[in-house]
Specification:
It is built from four helices and eight strands. With about 190 residues, the chain is an alpha/beta fold. Strands 1, 2, 3, 4, 5, 6, 7 and 8 form an eight-stranded mixed β-sheet that branches. The longest helix has 20 residues. The N and C termini lie far apart (about 65 Å). About 5% of the residues have low confidence.
């Protein structure tokens, strides 16, 4: 019995000490409105992630080794939550069965990192597509954010995280400030 407990303990300790894949904190920040655009306009929010791969960064250290890095959070759900807060702050009410829908499609969310011991270069790109739809028609818009950053030394996980979150937050700000989208939803989304 003692040997079995000892073997199980060693297996557990070995599993705990195995190197873990690095993961990034994906923390989109909603842009909250100070005043309502509408009152009692309801909509249903649907989201889908159509990216070809689920990682959010590709790190090339120059030794024929490109390493994918994933987000700790689910990218689709984090963006859906940020957008629902953003729309709620504008006065829109989220329901499960409205005839008005907003569909979020995550098309791209990636930071390409090339680094050596002397410098790093990060190229980030985020593409989200929103479709606001009513029985009378729909509006489809794409929102893109990009960033290029070069710095000394190699990029840390925190550096990559910051670039990704900065670009996502710029895209959320663009959505929040989109007068065409606001007008479409305001004029067509009814309770």
């Amino acid at each position: 019995m003692k040997k079995l407990v000892l073997a199980a303990s060693i297996a557990l300790l070995t599993a705990c000490s195995a190197p873990q894949q690095p993961q990034l904190n994906f923390m989109p920040q909603p842009v909250l409105s100070r005043s309502d655009i509408v009152k009692n306009s309801t909509f249903t929010l649907v989201s889908k992630d159509v990216r070809s791969a689920q990682y959010v960064a590709l790190v090339d250290s120059g030794r024929n080794n490109i390493e994918p890095v994933h987000a700790k959070q689910n990218v689709r759900i984090a963006l859906e939550n940020a957008l629902s807060e953003q729309f709620a702050s504008q006065g829109f009410q989220l329901t499960v069965n409205s005839e008005n829908t907003v569909t979020l499609e995550v098309q791209e969310a990636l930071v390409n990192v090339t680094h050596s011991i002397f410098e790093n270069q990060m190229d980030a790109k985020v593409t989200l597509e929103l479709t606001a739809e009513t029985p009378q028609g729909k509006l489809v818009k794409s929102y893109n954010g990009t960033a290029k950053r070069t710095a000394a030394l190699s990029a840390s996980d925190e550096d990559i995280e910051n670039v990704l979150n900065d670009v996502v937050n710029l895209v959320l700000k663009e959505i929040s400030n989109d007068k065409e989208l606001q007008t479409y939803m305001k004029d067509r989304f009814r309770g």
